[in-house]
Design goal:
This protein is mainly α and about 140 residues long. The chain is built from 6 helices and no strands. It comes from Lentzea aerocolonigenes (Lechevalieria aerocolonigenes).
Length: about 140
């Protein structure tokens, strides 16, 4: 006979061990929240760059959605608007898509400059031009 406050499907799989002990359940939920939050933050940071930024955002939200109902709603909302953006971009003329790509390239170049990558690579080849130095990390 099952307890009335326990859902029948909670007795399946390894997750039921955590549900049986409130302290373990809380620790598990905190762990899922921290892991999912870190993955989500990493994905948000990666969005403007070429690569899997949105995929990582969706993964972070999916991790959070395993324990938090609000994250499942946010995941559906974000996916819907992402799909709309992609469909809108596909319908645009080539110059609009090129403008979006140019914006992405500018973000990447600005980040590379601010992280002092141009000066680092220039130093490998003996190029020590002052304008390659980042205003943030460029002081030697």
């Amino acid at each position: 006979m099952t307890k009335p406050d326990v859902k029948p499907d909670e007795h399946k799989g390894w997750r039921h061990w955590f549900h049986r002990n409130p302290a373990l359940n809380l620790a598990y939920r905190i762990g899922v929240g921290v892991l999912g939050g870190l993955v989500l933050i990493a994905g948000i940071i990666m969005i403007p760059y070429p690569g899997p930024g949105w995929l990582v955002v969706f993964a972070g939200l999916a991790i959070l959605a395993t324990e938090f109902e609000w994250a499942g709603r946010v995941l559906k909302f974000v996916k819907r608007y992402y799909d709309r953006w992609v469909e809108w971009l596909k319908r645009q003329p080539g110059w609009v898509r090129a403008l979006v790509m140019a914006g992405v390239c500018l973000i990447v170049l600005a980040t590379v400059y601010l992280l002092n990558v141009f000066a680092l690579v220039g130093g490998w080849f003996g190029v020590e031009w002052s304008w390659l130095q980042s205003p943030i990390f460029g002081s030697r």
